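User: Watch each token:
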Amino acid sequence: MALPKNVGEQDRTIRLVVATVLIVASFFVQPFLLQIVLTVIALVLLATSWTRTCPAYIPLGIDTSK
């Protein structure tokens, strides 16, 4: 089952910028657990921007690719 492409260009760009900021921020925060959380969130944003599919958008009926 292929997931629908529901992430548009502007949404994708925002996800990439936020992911970059979170990765950079993870180098400067102190608790190691917070570093891991920021990195995981950044990786999710990178994955959804790369695949152009956001699983959270599907049940909500959101499609920014139009």
User: Anything to note?
Assistant: The longest helix spans residues 32-51.
